[in-house]
Amino acid sequence: MAIQVNPAFLQTPTLLFAYEELPPNTSFARDRYFPGARPLSTEEVLVEMNGASQTLAPAVPENSEGVQIGRLGWTARTYRPPFFKPKRVHNASDLKRKGFGESLGSDLPVEQRQAALINDDMVYLRNILARREEWMAWQVLQHNGYTLTAKTEDGGPTQTLTYAFYEGSNDPSTLTIAAADEWTDTTDWKTIAGHVLTAQSTLRRRGLPGVDLIVGANVAEVLNHHEGLLKRLDQRNNNTGALDPSIDASLLGTVGRINFGAGLVNTFTFDGTYTDEAGVSHSFVDPDTIILAAPNLGETAYGLLTWMDDAGVIHEASTDALPAAYTDKRGKSMELSMESRPLVIPSAPSPFVHAKVVNI
Fold first, then answer.
1. Model confidence over 161-199: pLDDT tens digits?
2. What is the rounded average pLDDT of the residues 310-334?
3. What's the helix, strand, coil split of the chain in %, to 5?
């Protein structure tokens, strides 16, 4: 019996329409610190950064002509976003077998099974692209950039892609902590609070807020058991804050709201992990690191994507991801791929501070 495959399912416009109808997915660091999917009409992204002004308005005599204020400098650099194209393959036999979620003995029509399989693969590919964007967001917060290794499926030559959102060789968002001042359960509280105050002061000088303190798992352990902090929390009339260890479905763990000396700071961990290409699991957040940041400090932009129809006409698509399907009649298989050119970028020079504070 011949297996009838609906060719309309394999057309890029149909797949793109189906992709855009998928419910939005969420990703913590990308959505909180680099929100807003901004598809572009160009393959390159112009990144413009303008520092915040701390200048006071000068007083002048009445009826004077005023005092001219100089304009702040700004920087602009062009980046070509990295290119991603994960794919999945299914063959003719997959359309005859029970799919995930189908009841035993199901006689689901092949056309419906194919549509369900394409939908499942599309959701899976979109999710792994979102996980890559989440990785990029955390890399920016901890390294002010990211490095990717581009390689082909057949093991061809690799290419290293480096994106650094600062000038020179030294990352200005790094706060260096001396080994003697490493955070432990017995480290003097003034030393610990002093490091956070320094980070807050650094952001204030740049005209930027610092309301979120993200801490790695080992740092959270130190804070939750630090006698100096616990004693201060027990003291009456001392607005040091409160510890409230918890974790929600987004893998965001709350340590508490802590006053390190300049107001209460939301202090939390993020327990999300990812698996690299070698199959090794890693935490998105370095367990020994702290990051001081604020929401909406950047954005996620997407470079232009192109595709060719059956008549050989090239089309452009301003979208965050572009699905495409290809058939292999010899191999009796179909390949579903999803292309994307994301670039996670800060909107101001170094709008966060990060430091390694444990096991230095």
1. 999 999 888 999 999 999 999 999 899 999 999 999 999
2. 83
3. 25, 30, 45
Phi-psi region of 204 (alpha: psi -120 to 50; beta: other; left: phi over 0): alpha
- CB neighbour list of residue 227: distance below 8 Å, 6 or more residues apart: 185, 186
CB–CB of 51/206 below 8 Å?
yes
DSSP state of 84: B
**pTM of the full predicted structure?**
0.84
Per the structure, the count of domains in the chain is 2
CB burial readout 112-141, b (16+ within 10 A) else e: ebbeebbebbbeebbeebbbbbbbbbbbbb
Within 10 angstroms of residue 199's Cβ, the number of other Cβ atoms is 24
185 and 251, same domain (yes or no) = yes
Single out the residue of 155, 101, 137, 168 nearest to residue 296, CA to CA: 137
Cβ contacts of 42 within 8 Å, gap of 6 or more:
303, 304
pLDDT category at 8 given cuts 50, 70, 90 is: low
Which pair of structure tokens corresponds to residue 269?
């961990």
68 token code pair: 């001219």
Q: For 296, left (φ over 0), alpha (ψ -120 to 50), or beta?
A: left
Which pLDDT score, from 0 to 100, does residue 300 have?
Answer: 94
Measured CA to CA, the distance from residue 35 to residue 37 in angstroms comes to 7
Residue 147 has which token pair? 């490095």
pLDDT in tens, 230-254: 777 765 445 555 555 555 545 567 6
Query: Of the ranges 42-46, 226-230, 236-240, 328-332, which one carries the lowest mean pLDDT score?
Result: 236-240
Residues 269, 337, single domain; the answer is no
Residue-number span of the structural domain to which 303 is assigned = 7-51+77-163+299-346
